[in-house]
TrEMBL record:
It holds the Pfam family Peripla_BP_3. PANTHER family: HTH-TYPE TRANSCRIPTIONAL REGULATOR GALS, LACI-RELATED TRANSCRIPTIONAL REPRESSOR. The lineage of its organism: Bacteria, Pseudomonadati, Pseudomonadota, Alphaproteobacteria, Hyphomicrobiales. Keywords: DNA-binding, Transcription, Transcription regulation. InterPro entries: HTH_LacI, LacI/GalR-like_sensor, Lambda_DNA-bd_dom_sf, Peripla_BP_I. Residues 28-82 form the HTH lacI-type domain. Residues 8-24 have a biased composition (Basic and acidic residues). Residues 1-27 are annotated as: Disordered. It comes from Rhizobium puerariae. PROSITE patterns: HTH_LACI_2. This is LacI family transcriptional regulator.
Amino acid sequence: MPLEDLEDKGQRAMPDRMAEKSGPDTKPTLRTIAELTGLAVTTVSRALADAPQIALETRQRVRQVAGEIGYLPDRAAQRLRTGRTNVISLVLDPHEEILGYATSMINGLTEALRGTPYHLVITPHFSDTPQIDPVRHIMRNRMADGIIFTRTEPSDERVKLLIENNFPFICHGRTELATAHPYVDYDNYSFTYQAARKLIAAGSRRLLIILPPDRFTFAHHMRHGFMTAVREEGVAFEIARGVTLDSKSDDIRDWLYRRMGEPARPDGFICGGEVSALSVMAAAYDHQLELGKDVRLVAKQTSGLFDQVRPRVETIYEDLSEAGLLMGRLLLRRIAGPVPVHELQALQTV
């Protein structure tokens, strides 16, 4: 006889009036589910924890009832009992350059966490405070079982802190630290290398690139790929001075407008995001320059925006939803137990 039948023998399902007893302000508990299903509280608890000793049919029935009445586990009690919060914290820097950055990444993460007991909590980080502050706060107060953060630096203090404290994490981006660590990254070297080669093949002879702020690791990767391509081909080049991918879109547009009006105007532009690409298009239009003839452009695309733009813009795609999915799956593996670090690293190719 299944274990839950032994525990619940003699009990009967309660009539629908149990649901009526739970008013709109009454928080459903394990006992509520037990009374509605006729099962013991211990059986309900184990069924929600997906204990294999409980029959699959019973586990499914308990989860169905829990969902119907809006049951949520008491995280404080859960943390005292298991030492876990069942929370993954995503620390995000709001910035406008990459369209749909947060939405796409969150979509991937929630897909990775679907069907698990984990919930995703978004923790904002603003540029006027140290990057390490929200990460330190989450770790010290055990507000999550794992942390995900973005925009890594070559010697990232967040990575050092979490490694030293053996706290599960994964970051979107790499570092130059000697100690290996979990990450998911996009091959920005290949992006700029291929973008430059596309422009040169199309006839551009003076290339300009707008880079991220130099403190970020991916800025170095983008610079390296760009410089490799232009040196191989021997074409003129320049790196935008005075604006970065973090600059406001109006500032990027105004800077580009001034530059396009100066001697030795660039005729090929590499943009690490759709916002800066739109700024190039606006500045070119204001100078009555024809896109694809007087000015050529290759942009990194993270949304479907440029699928609707005419004339068509050459793009290279970065899949942020896939990045979120990979980070979620790898972090869950790390939380579950020790895993060789190289198995917690992924590089998305161009």
